[in-house]
Design brief:
CATH superfamily: RNA polymerase II/Efflux pump adaptor protein, barrel-sandwich hybrid domain
Strand content: over 45%
Distance between the termini: 44 Å
CATH topology: OB fold (Dihydrolipoamide Acetyltransferase, E2P)
Oligomer: single chain
Helix content: under 10%
Radius of gyration: 16 Å
CATH architecture: Beta Barrel
Strand order of the largest sheet: 1-2-3-4
Number of strands: 12
Largest sheet: 4 strands, antiparallel
Length: about 130
């Protein structure tokens, strides 16, 4: 939905989406999140995550899968690209490790907080 906001005295129209307790705002290539959940549960769409899980930050379509099961990845490595609300989201590895499961595929529609893959920590050589 489109919202009209006043920022520093100027009217700005932003794209928005309310997903559970999270309000996402998108404007000129930037995204903001305002969660109304308690701080302890804010990660990944309002629920706690296990270490090594990569979850969808919002509902959208998987447009690229740049890894596979058993791949060794570095922290910060781009693993999945999503499109949501006509914007591209680059999802990076939260830690170094080995991909143990891949729960999404190219072209798949995913929900907010949906598990996309699992990484088990291992020593990764630079």
């Amino acid at each position: 939905m489109r919202l009209e906001l006043e920022i520093n005295g100027q009217k700005v129209i932003v794209e928005s989406e309310l997903a559970g307790t999270d309000l996402w705002l998108h404007h000129k290539g930037q995204t903001w999140l305002r969660s109304f959940a308690p701080v302890a549960t804010r990660r990944a769409g309002g629920r706690k995550t296990d270490a090594g899980e990569l979850l969808a930050p919002m509902p959208g379509k998987v447009t690229k899968v740049l890894t596979q099961v058993d791949a060794i990845v570095k922290a910060g490595e781009v693993l999945i690209v999503m499109e949501a609300m006509k914007m591209e989201y680059i999802l990076k590895s939260p830690q170094a490790g080995r991909i143990t499961s891949l729960s999404c595929e190219l072209g798949q529609q995913v929900n907010l907080g949906q598990k996309l893959l699992q990484i088990d920590p291992v020593a990764v050589k630079s």
